[in-house]
Amino acid sequence: MSTLDRLHGPIIDERFHYRRQKVGKKKDVEVEDILDVLVSLEDEDGQPLLSTDEIKAQNSGDWLFLGFSWTKHPGVGTVSLQESPTSLALAAPLVLQAKPRLAAHLYMEN
Fold first, then answer.
1. Cβ neighbours of residue 8 under 8 Å, at least 6 residues apart?
2. Distances (CA, A) of 74 to 62, 78, 96
3. Which of 48, 59, 70, 100 stands the most exposed, by the fewest C-beta atoms within 10 Å?
4. 103 CB-near residues (< 8 Å, 6+ apart)
5. In this predicted model, what pLDDT tens digit does every residue of 2-32 receive, in sequence order?
C-alpha cells in the first residue's frame, strides 16, 4: 500500500459516507473541492456514479487539486461542466480561482 493510498483512502471513505448521509437526508451539502465533486456525482437513479474504489483509483496527480479551495471568479454566475457535443472536452473552459488550504511549506516553490 502506498503512502498516498494509506493517507487518502480514509479521507475518501469518510467524505463519501458523510456526503451520502447528508444527501440522503436531503440536506444541502456545499461542494468544497474536487473530491466533493467526485463523491457527489450520481447516475439517473440518484445512485453514486463512482464507488470509493473508483475514486481512489484516480491518478494521484489529480489529488494535487485537493490542496486548494476552488471558487468561481467574481461576476461568474454558474459553472457548467457540460461536455462538448463533438468531444469529451468541456463545452466551455473551466476557469476557477485556487486558494491554498494547506500549510505554506507543503507547496512547492518555483
1. 56, 63
2. 25, 11, 10
3. 59
4. none
5. 666 777 788 888 888 887 777 665 556 677 7
Q: What is the rounded CA–CA span in Å between residue 64 and residue 69? A: 11
CA dist., res. 42 & res. 52, Å (int):
13
Question: 27: which 3 cell numbers?
Answer: 440536506
Query: Is the full-model pTM beyond 0.70?
Result: no
Amino acid at 20: R
Residue 85 backbone class (left: φ over 0; alpha: ψ -120 to 50; beta: rest): alpha
pLDDT digits (tens, 9 = 90+) for 58-102: 755 566 666 778 888 888 888 888 888 998 888 888 888 888 877
Residue 93 CA neighbour count, 13 Å, CB half? 3
Cell of residue 102, nine digits: 494547506
The grid coordinates of residue 93 equal 473552459
Residue count of the chain, please give it.
Answer: 110
